[in-house]
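Quick one, tokens below. Sequence please?
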């Protein structure tokens, strides 16, 4: 009797572990970083010269923003002040690279625009899958 109970517990435990494994994304899923680069390059109409100067500054700003977020996660005002200072530095650097204020200001909002576009695309795909599932029934 003990062996049967032990065996059933083991099988139940293995079943839980098997279901907890993360699903691997398909190999054909597009690279989000590549999509982001293409999106930003297109939105800012970057030429080759501008792109070579733009991306190091952009990535540096992103790294600094992440670091500030980690360091100031408990102090909202300090976080906002440091982020504002970094955004001002970023804007000065972008003005040297991009020239016009329109492109510089646009560069400050492109992360949010890209994230919104991705969310919208994912919602559309989810709705299509749900619709397909409803049509099968």
């Amino acid at each position: 009797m003990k062996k049967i109970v032990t065996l059933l517990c083991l099988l139940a435990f293995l079943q839980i572990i098997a279901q907890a494994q993360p699903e691997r994304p398909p190999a054909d899923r597009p690279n989000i970083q590549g999509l982001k680069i293409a999106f930003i390059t297109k939105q800012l109409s970057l030429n080759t010269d501008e792109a070579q100067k733009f991306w190091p500054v952009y990535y540096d700003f992103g790294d600094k923003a992440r670091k500030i977020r980690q360091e100031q996660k408990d102090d909202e005002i300090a976080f906002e002040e440091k982020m504002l200072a970094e955004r001002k530095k970023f804007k000065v650097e972008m003005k040297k690279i991009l020239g016009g204020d329109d492109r510089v200001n646009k560069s400050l909002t492109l992360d949010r625009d890209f994230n919104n576009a991705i969310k919208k695309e994912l919602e559309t795909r989810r709705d299509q899958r749900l619709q397909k599932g409803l049509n099968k029934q």
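The chain has a mean pLDDT of 84. The two ends are 45 Å apart (CA to CA).
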